[in-house]
Amino acid sequence: MSAESTGYDAARITVLEGLEAVRKRPGMYVGSTDVRGLHRMLLDEVGRAVNASLAGGGGRVEVTLTPDGGARVADDGPGTPFEDCGDTGAPGLETLLTRCFGSARGRPGRRTVFMDSWTTDPGVTNALSSRLTAEVRREGMRRVQEFARGVALAPPTDAGPVTGSGTTLTFRPDPEVFSTVEYGFALLAARLTELAFLNPGLDLVLTDERSPDGPQQARLRFLGGVREFVTFLAVQAGEPFVRDVIAFEREDPRMAGSMEVALSWSHTHEERVRSFVNSMATHHGGSHEWGLRTGIAAAVDAYARAQGLLTATDPALRAEDVGAGLTAVVSVKLDDPEFTGCMGWTLGNDAVSACVAEAVRDHLGAWLEEHPQAAGAVVARMLPARVGD
């Protein structure tokens, strides 16, 4: 079919400049223009704030749902200067808010918190907001700049002296873009709870100012890490029949990263296994979750054989046999995570599987030896899965 027959030629090509492309195809940047895209845009800004806060040695991020339907995200980081940093080449806040850089998935650095496998820049939030106010507290001064649908209304202005440092973005999602601009407090609280568990000591405050009955607030700060996360999940699952939570941390250069693992079992048959990469939930699992299951199967199989509960002719326990009643969290933080699948929610780093499996086998194996009564309950829970094989 020729260009002439279809009526398509170079004259019909439209070049979109700056943030115009974001407003033209918003779903390409935040996934959708429904409630999912709305929340993703806000959570991307939370991720930016958390990274700034952790990098600055602080650790407090405040997320506020404002009465006018907007949101405010404030961090206590060093404060992003509005101007570009000529010596480092780093873009300033004004540049970030008025251009689209297209942040790629898998940005290196295990200390970088991911909110999704494809993280948008502040420019996307600015483009998809009817109004946005940026405030920077830095070197004793407060500076403010206003935007409308991605366009700066004026240069940054000095707003007087201030104590402390940080960056605050206040924005109203554009109803011309999104089918709904109503944030869900419970949905946001659930994601921020995960983030707080995975980053012990991080102080997250979520406030909802929209109710006429007064603000609703959740302060999320946990020092126990994934061990406390598993306890939280186990309470939801039912009374745990293993009182202890088996938990450990390990750094492993073979996978260029670190791991945190915690697990326990409950009386129910429900499985609750949660996996994360650089604080991002991997909904479809991947090499870290497979390593967890493989390591559990290897440890329990070795213990059962040592106790005569399995014979040499019995088939080995499989990774698929360990799920009944299992409550576990496996969190890896990698310098260079690789994601697979169309949504990027599956970890693909091959080395991670072997490293996690080895660590789980070692730690769980030692725990089974030290707790024979609880170990017997764990083994009994898994062996029926082999009956009839």
Describe the structure.
It is a single chain. The protein has 389 residues and is of the alpha+beta class. It is built from 11 helices and 16 strands. It has helices at residues 3-6, 20-24, 27-30, 35-55, 93-98, 122-127, 185-198, 225-237, 287-306, 350-370, 372-382, and strands at 60-65, 71-75, 129-138, 141-148, 151-152, 157-161, 166-173, 203-208, 216-220, 246-252, 257-265, 272-277, 280-281, 326-334, 339-340, 346-347. Strands 1, 2, 3, 4, 5, 6, 7, 8 and 9 form a 9-stranded mixed sheet that branches. A 5-stranded mixed sheet has the order 10-11-14-12-13, with helices on both faces. A hairpin with a 5-residue loop joins strand 1 and strand 2 (71-75). Helix 7 (185-198) crosses helix 8 (225-237), helix 9 runs parallel beside helix 10 (350-370) and helix 10 (350-370) packs across helix 11. The longest helix is centred in the first third of the chain and has 21 residues, at 35-55. The model has no long low-confidence stretch (mean pLDDT 89).
Approximate shape: elongated
Structural class: alpha+beta
One letter per element, helices H and strands E, the order comes to HHHHEEHHEEEEEHEEHEEEEHEEEHH
Tell me roughly what share of residues is in helical segments.
25-40%
Number of strands: 16
